[in-house]
Amino acid sequence: MSEKWETVGKTKPAAGKAKANGTSGKVSKKQEPKIYTMEDVLPASSVENMYQAAFNPTPASPKNDKKETNGTAKAKPKSTEKKVEKPKIPSTLGQAVKENLRVEDLKNLLESSQTRFPDSPLLWVRDVAAYLNIKLVTQPPTEGDILGGEPSTALTANMKKVINVMLQKCSDSMKETFFETCIANTAHDLSKGMCVTGWRILTQLLAETNPTLVTAHIPRYIELRNSYQNRPNVGLAILWSTGQAGNKSLHSGIKVWLEIMLPVITMKHYTKFVVDYLATLLSTHNITKTTVLNKPVMDIPNFLTVQDTVFIVSTQINKDCARSLKDQYPALRAIAVAGCKNHEMFPELLGRLANLSMPDQVVDTLDLLAICLTATPAALVHWHKAYTSHLPQSGQLLQYLDTNWGRFKSALDVPEFHETIEAFEDYNQSVINKEGLALASQGCTSLSGKMSTPGLPWFPWKTLSFLLLISTASIINLDCQKHGSFSLSSTGQFLRDIGQFDRVVTNYQVVLDKSMEGRHWADTNLPLYAEQARRVGGPYYDVAQTKVGEAWVLMVQGWGKLEVAVKAGVVKVEGWVPGAQEQINRVGQAVAVGGKAMWVRGQHVGLVLQQGAVDLVNGDIDWVAVKANAAERAQVVQGQLVAAYNYVQVQINQLVK
Fold this sequence. Notes:
With 657 residues, this protein is an all-alpha fold. It has helices at 2-6, 11-20, 38-41, 44-55, 93-100, 103-116, 121-135, 157-168, 172-191, 197-209, 212-215, 218-227, 232-243, 250-261, 268-284, 300-311, 319-337, 345-352, 359-375, 378-386, 391-403, 405-412, 415-430, 437-450, 461-483, 490-498, 501-537, 539-576, 580-618, 623-656; strands at 68-69, 72-73.
């Protein structure tokens, strides 16, 4: 190194200068003193470091980091300390609780936090969550079950008790703040890659004690979900946290699923969780397609949204998830409509039937409409009003009822439904060339043929029995008048022949005597009782008598006012629909004419019966003709009975099959 630095020293230029002057390069030591350079005085390593620091400030490699003093290197002593091994991170949450968590430590932490901040319960929750986050770190991180389960189940009963006692000391409003804080901090810490097991545990415990904490502030959680929507791990954590309300409350779980989870079902990162949560929620509460609740878990618009999601939106998501969603739909529909007892559902479903394009959704809607008809009579009223304006949809419903008549026969084979179908048939006959008319007419005709006792006339047993009683009394009266007395009449002679004359006469005399006694008692005692009531009641009796008279007057006045109101209503209807009053007058005239015709017909029937009775008494009846007519009538009745028997047999065979 010293030779290298000598080339830049002063000796060579001096020699060069001397050579240039023509003198010899050799100089005696006495004449020129020796000059010492930096290389001669300092060690070589020091000189090298000096120039390197001046012209190349880059530090030397650690491999050559050796200290030299006076040209000699000193060896660095080897470290005798052993490397500290890092603690092994638990792989499961149960193992983490067993190794790192103690009930006493948790109690001491809470006591210390409550002592320092007695009026700040929110700080208690933060301290507990931070402690659990530190102690329950696992590798890989614990995700938690969809509904219930881990991480809260990993804690012991005493640990849960300590935390629940702390939560019970707070008001409901503070618990709502706790829950919102837990979900917000879960999202915040998870976005930074931190452990959030403590926040999850507190979320579960709060939701178990009060599930309505979630539903109280759903708009806030929707806003939080939207802010982390593009970060799937954080978004799923928010869905998981809000969904814990369904562990103890079916209604809260359904509400969270509808308003927070369902809007993101088409996003591929959330689809599976949304579908799996619904399946878990229904299975947790043992909901099946045969479950019937007293009250629906959702309103009609939300149910229509669910129906569209199942049959339309499901075509845009994963096939396995779509299949699973359709499998859950029957159970979800059962609790969403609660037996279709809400009659307002019928017009809603009937109105949207024309806009449906998916065959499965059309069939499902028709089935719901049929169930509405069986569940509430008000649905028939809605159908009456909407039939003319929704004729194609009504035709579809009639065809569906006809196809599934065996299922709905027991509930719909009633006079009210018969009258409805008859009214529909009358309307169908009054219009032509209207859309859906052929389908509706065919459905009405087919249903009319399947209803009970088709083709068999209604037999008026009560009316005929009453007429038979009157006819018998008239015949006996005419018989007695002709022969002068009951004992000489044909009826009396007949009773003697069968040995019942004395008994009938005795019973008749008893009835007559009792009737006379009752009339005599009424004539004698009723005035006394009335006088006694007047004397006991005093002015109240007179007031009651006056009120009865006033009630009669009011009834008469009410009838008059009713007539006036009807006339006013007719005039008002005439203003809305010109020509309505004329139509009403025509209907009234037709009713009057019909009533008059019925009265004339009744009189004619009475005269015929009277003449028949006279002929019977006089012996002018042709019993041969009567026998022939009776035989003919008997054959007709027999034919009707055989037809009825065959019909019943066919229906029984269908039920057996």
